[in-house]
Structure formats: C-alpha cells, structure tokens
Fold each of these.
Amino acid sequence: MTAPPRKDPAAVEAEVREKIHLEILKRTGAYHANDHVLLPSGQHTSEYIEKTLVTTEPSFTEGLGAVIAKHFAQWPVDVVLSTGPGALILSHCVARAHPSRPIVVYGTKGLTGGKRRVSLPAEFHRLLRPGTKVLLVEDLVSTGSTLSLLIDLVEQLGAHVVGVGCLWRRTSVDVGGKPVFSLVSRDFPTYDPEDCPLCRKSVPLNEEFVRRRHHRRPSSIQEPKEP
Ligand SMILES: [Zn+2]
C-alpha cells in the first residue's frame, strides 16, 4: 500500500500564511467575501476589497509590512518606492522593518492625452541614481500596469528594481518578470450580468461600492456655527 500523496510542506505553510493575511484584511473591514457585488466595470463578483480601508489599522499594517520586509531582507535596498500616496503607509512600514534602512519615496499617477503615466516628484529624482536598489511597494495589484510603468521609469534612471512587495495580487499578473511577493494571491472570477451565477440564484446585488464612487462627496471640515 502506498501512502496518500503528501502536500509539499512549503506549499502548506504558504497556504496557512495566506489564510492568516486574508483574515487580517477581513478584520480591517476591507475584504468582503460571499457577497454579490456590482463592480465599476458593470461586472459582478462574489469578493471585493476596499482599497482605502486596507491600511486603517496601524498594528496590522506594521505587521504586514514587516512580513514583506522580511521576505526581501536578504537583498540590500536603498529606496522603497511606493506606487502612489495610497500605498505610502504600507511602504513606510516595509522600509521601517527592512534591515538596510531604506528611504521611502512615492510615484504619482496621472493621465496625459488619455494615456496612463507615472512620474516621480522632481525632489525624488536625485535619490534614484544609477545603481540605486529599489523595492516597489503596492497595496493591491490588479492589472500591474502602474507597476510596469514605474519599473520602466526606475530603469530609465539607471536604478535597479530588486522586486515588488504587495498585500494583494491577482495570481495571473506578471510584472515585468520581476520577483513579486504578495501576502495574498487571489484571482476571483468576475461575470457579465447575463452570465452571473449569483444573479441566477437571485442573490441580492450589492451596489454599495459603485454608488459610493459616483456619489463621493468631498470631505471637508465645516466651520462651527455661531451660537
Ligand atoms: Zn450577478
């Protein structure tokens, strides 16, 4: 008799770790599962992650940042480059925990003539020199297009991309062949409304996230009214 095939212990460990990280994201309220969600694209899905809530819990963010830093600890890093201001809190936590004591800078995203582009604030240009070792940090990687643009930018300056660290990555995404370390890798299916199995089961559609995007009011501080 032969023993049942055993799973590779490293794969089991990775699976367990990923479950823990997913649980942490759930506790921030950012991750919604077993739902029926309308996406801004018009498609439907059962899982959703609210980007803005991902780093609202300082101790969680520090812990997750430390895990990313530990993964890249064996490589010297001079600069942690956040893909944008949104991933800056996580980037700070990664840089703080990395043994090389790297500095932290961020890119900015924008559109020029309808084309997506990324740039670095001018003050950061002199910090990325030929030979500078750069670790890119992103919160959620969906298409990887921002990361690819940033990698091009870094390489144009003669600096070297050590890798990419992120909280969440869609499994199918490749980022310019660079090593990517993600705390969670999940590619949840999205459906056209007419092919959606959740619609077929008459599960109520959650339009909250799309509504919020369209009706986002600018937050402001109001002057207290005179009594
Ligand atoms: Zn549906």
Amino acid sequence: MAVLNLILVRKFSAERTLFNESWQGTTGMILMDYFKPCITGSYSSVDYWWDRNASSVTDFDLVCYCLEDQGDSILVKHGGASKADLGFGGSTQWSKTQQAMICEVYLTDVIRGGDPRGGADGARDWAVANIIFHELMHSCLDAGPGAPLRNVHKIPNGVLGTDKPLNSSMRASDADKAAMRQGLAARKSGLKQFTGAM
Ligand SMILES: [Zn+2]
C-alpha cells in the first residue's frame, strides 16, 4: 500500500507572493483534509510536502508546481505547451514530450493583484488549496492517458470540479471528493510525474 504524497514544489518568492511559511503550512493541512476521505485503492494514507528530493518521487505521488505566474510555466518551459494553452490560476496537462504529468498553479493569480476571478482575498490558504485541489483533479481524472473521467469542469454538484472561478470561501463538496476517490481508485499503477524542474 502506498502513501499518497502530495508534493508541492516551491518555485516562488514568499515575499513577492505574500505566501509565507505559515500560509504554506495551513494550505498543506487543508489539502490533507480534502484528500483523507478520498483514500482508496492502492493508497493507505496521505501526506504532504513542501519540496522533496526529485529522486524520491514515485508514480503514485502527485506533484504540483507552485509558481508566481504564467511567465514561470513549467508546461511552457519543459512540457511543449504554448502560453495560449494555460489556464487562469493553474494548468495541468499530460506532456507528450516528457511522457509525464505537469501540474502547476500561479500564486499571483489567486493571492495578489485583487483579481476576483482568483478569489484574491484574505484567506490565502483556502484560495491556494482550492486551486491546487482543482488542478490535482485534472491530474487524476481527465488529463492523463487512460483518464477515468471526461471533464473535471462538469462534475454534477462539483464545487471545485467546475469551470467557474474558484474562491477562498468554497469548500470541496462530497461530489468533488467522490470524483477524486474515483481517480485514486483508477490509479492502479500510478502515473509518471514530471520532476525535471524540482
Ligand atoms: Zn480546470
């Protein structure tokens, strides 16, 4: 049985993004609480990490790059994507060139700038955890080869599984968690995560 390691990669300045270690810690705790009821299949438990040695990452882990903005996109730099492919707040794609999943979020979209599409407000931990959970839904459910679901944006009763803008007052619904559970159940041999920019 595997531990589901949620590996958040720190590719940002805490000063510039206003996202310090205290916010980072509570974001990780929120994600753990979101994932705990989703644990099933090959997984026995969930843990989170801010940064981890790339060599320790397995195909059963989930990696999310936390960037300042789209200009730092790992998908564009390493994954063969173009800037026009990127989403607001975050992007997740299976990279054909890397044969690996690349998942990233843009902290400036959700924390700074005051853009209401990103829920840019005081509860930074909830705003960031929500966008990370959304992108990890793509990673587990509709972006990879053999994906179990067609479109994460159309989950019935989905709150985070939606195409609507996310904000910090939203909470993952039972339908979101059931979908993630389905994604983890389908993850029988894992899925390669891109570790080349960790
Ligand atoms: Zn999406």
